[in-house]
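Recap quiz, item 2
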Amino acid sequence: MADTADILAVEPTVVPVPVRAHRPVGSPVARRVLIGIAVGWLLLALALPFASVFVAAFAEGVPAFFAALVQPDAVHAAYLTGLGVLAAVSFNVVFGILAAWAVTRTTLPGRGLITALLDLPIAVSPVIAGLMFVLLFGRQGWFGSLLSTLDVKVIFAVPGILIATVFVTLPFVAKEVIGVLQETGPAEEEAAATLGASRVQTFLHIVLPNIRWAVFYGLVLTAARALGEFGAVSVVSGNLIGKTQTLPLHIERAYASYQTTAAFAAAVPLTVLAVLTIVAQKLLAHFASRRRGRAALAEESS
Amino acid sequence: MIHHIPRTDLPRTDIAVEGVSCSFGGFQALADVSLDVRPGELLALLGPSGSGKTTLLRIIAGLEQADAGSVRIGEAEMSGADVRSRGIGFVFQHYALFKHMTVADNIGFSMRMRKAPKAEIAARAHELLSLFRLDGLAARYPDELSGGQRQRVALARALASSPSILLLDEPFGALDARVRQELRRWLRRLHDDIGVTTVFVTHDQEEALEVADRVVIMNAGRIEQVGTPEEVFANPANEFVMTFLGNVNVFHGRIEGGRVHAHGMVMDAPEQHAGREQAAAKAYFRPHELDIERAESGAEADNSFPATVAFVNPVGPNVKVELRTSDGETVFVELTRERYESLRLTKDLPVFVSPRTATIFVEDYSI
């Protein structure tokens, strides 16, 4: 009975179909004018301010730039910012995946609430977020007396900065992972279970490979937000020079006290990191969409 | 196509489902369902969507928990037991292949999870790849396969751990018609060769009747009938089974003098109902159970009704004829080619329709 097998063997396999670009519409003159306006606006609104950061940073020469970068206050501010990024990234890896799991793969009664709460850090102004923590952990706050008996300082200290940073970055990983888990559905995990995989094995071999790009993508967003966070951190930190100042606070303080080189020199690493973030974001999105694109193509031809 | 039998020592396991109920929110998916699956048989769960067939399959697998009742697989009572401990192979509707793994890694997954020696995994994967005619595809990823190939990978993966029972959820649902036909016959032969007790879910009555040893017809969370394809097709237990298993024509009538009178036709009433004078009855005819006579070939015979030819589809071994009755009803008749040619049917031709055989359902007394 080899005939069936032969028929099965010649089934069509997947062939990618090239997508044709759209034909341009409208008169060439109108097109050029419109493109000119768009590019001009981008130059004016983005490229120029961007370049001005570098011009201002190097206005007093390269040595002055490096001197401003390595001054102790700037170094400490960079250290604190790094700490904030580290806290936000490491917390969100765990929390983001757990929250996404709870929302998409359990029947817990509080699932809707978690989803709603994840929007809170985006919806609430960072300054208000900072004030919330002052009300909770400040000397007059709900836990103020408890913290002072334990001799733990949260507000106007490093823990406050970390808590505020974690709070404002809370949604990024969770939301990305929720999206992917909802899209893939539980079938692969159920399949793994029927094939004898334990919960841990299913997570490591099935879930993690499926969500890893989403996790990376969420972490890039988290890091970007943690690097640049100003409002919430400025409220909880007390803005103490050399103690509770992160890079954005340091820049603002330096600029306000006419130390232009110091301000813009510190702005350079943040700006560079922002550009790297965008590049990483694009690359990750490209990877994710290429996988999805291939899958969609295969779906069509099956 | 199966040249060597992979596991002649596969256990022939039976499944016993007893009084299983299951509801999701307010929706009763299964209501007190009991079913025995015989060792080594190929059983189809057939029903429309929402009939509970997939829920029943998932409860047997342990992917869903029943609210009440019990499931036994072989000697082991499985109620509440984890999916992993049930020794089942499951093929999901859209295959649920692991997208980030190659075909070979998909097939070897169950053996890797129980940490089998690498050589054993490779040997078994190789064996299954050639058994399922996937030899050249071992290094491909699922999104580089056609639908039929994915289906075979899913089956190979499910069988890799030598399960005691095999459960398939709409195994051919996502395939186009031609591939479906091929795979259907192929599944039947595969089952004949490996003999593992198999339950599959389908909404396609043709598929169920063609492939399965026995068919379980489900509707609204209950089992309507269980039997061989011949039994359920020839002796449908009720009107639902009758209408679900193919095209039917229905005529309403009454019992008079021990016979059913419906739309000008007269047929014997079922024995147990023959004495129920004036009881409402329905006469069901499959398209091949009606015959056509040209109207001019004689006076109106007893036991027939007039109609006109509305449409003829002469493609295929049988000719499908669509008729219109005087009160606008459509009647479907299937004729043999010889009969069609001798009748020389044309559109709008007046004809008489008479029954060859009928299936009669007498309505219950109700107030």
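Residues 260-301 of chain A form the longest helix (42 residues).
Chain A touches chain B through 34 residues (CB under 8 Å).
End of item.
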